[in-house]
Amino acid sequence: MKKVLFLCTGNSCRSQMADAIVNARMGDTWHAVSAGTKPVGYVHPEALAVLKEIGIHHEGHSKLAEEFKSVDFDLVVTVCDSAAEECPVWLGMGKKVHCGFSDPALTDDLDDFRKVRDEIGRVILALLEAYEN
Fold it and tell me: What is the mean pLDDT of residues 95-119?
């Protein structure tokens, strides 16, 4: 099974959604985890709500990227794209790729969370499918 790490700054929203979507939709070929450079300590309630809308129950927790430095990942994907945010630098193992998504936590609008969730689903699943080939 291949392993992927999704990195963001706070590890409360985008990286958590990517983690949950991959494990739910591609769990037979990929194991996903997520982490942040400055984890906020919780998973955003709206991220959990929009995942639940598509049948994904996620009980993640916000984690520090340092916890995974010794893990041999196949792929490491940074998901923060806002110029106002730090996009973490990964010095551990695994090919690094950037797929930036807007931060719905900036607006707390449920429709923004849905839009980002759906975009993550399309982009990340396609990326992993392409990486398998």
Answer: 93
